[in-house]
Design a protein that fits this description.
By secondary structure, the chain is an all-beta fold. The protein is built from no helices and eleven strands. The strands form two sheets. Strands 2, 4, 5, 6, 9, 10 and 11 form a seven-stranded mixed sheet that branches. A four-stranded antiparallel sheet has the order 1-3-8-7, with no helix packed on it. The radius of gyration is 13 Å and the shape is globular. The N and C termini lie far apart (40 Å).
């Protein structure tokens, strides 16, 4: 069973950095695509980044390219999102998601992800 728990959110000034972590207590982490999504107040949930099961392919929302880095440690069943040069518009609840499926491909569509964490708040002050 997949159970995702995010951590690392908080309040940071514009230009600062945070690293989010997501730990999966299940047994399928190392064989499935993982992603980060976010949802700001009054807005729809949007894709931020994804990484395929081996870590070989990563995808990013255009507005975070060059600032955010997604990575994974399959030995620790942990997904990361390193966020640098944060902007107030990055303020949102950030969700970790597991696509499910054996060696699934990358995807930016939330409907392709079967498992979700509870979310962690990231607030960037100007």
């Amino acid at each position: 069973q997949v159970q995702l728990v995010e951590s690392g959110g908080g309040l940071v000034q514009a230009g600062g950095s945070l690293r989010l972590s997501c730990t999966d207590s299940g047994r399928t982490f190392s064989t499935t695509t993982m992603g980060w999504f976010r949802q700001a107040p009054g807005k729809e949930r949007e894709f931020v980044a994804s990484v395929t099961w081996s870590g070989g392919n990563t995808y990013y929302l255009d507005s975070v390219k060059g600032r955010f880095t997604i990575s994974r440690d399959n030995a620790k069943n942990t997904l990361y999102l390193q966020m640098n040069s944060l902007k107030p518009e990055d303020t949102a609840v950030y969700y970790c998601a597991a696509r499910g499926g054996y060696k699934s491909g990358g995807s930016y569509r939330s409907q392709d992800y079967a498992y979700w964490g509870q979310g962690t708040q990231v607030t960037v002050s100007s």
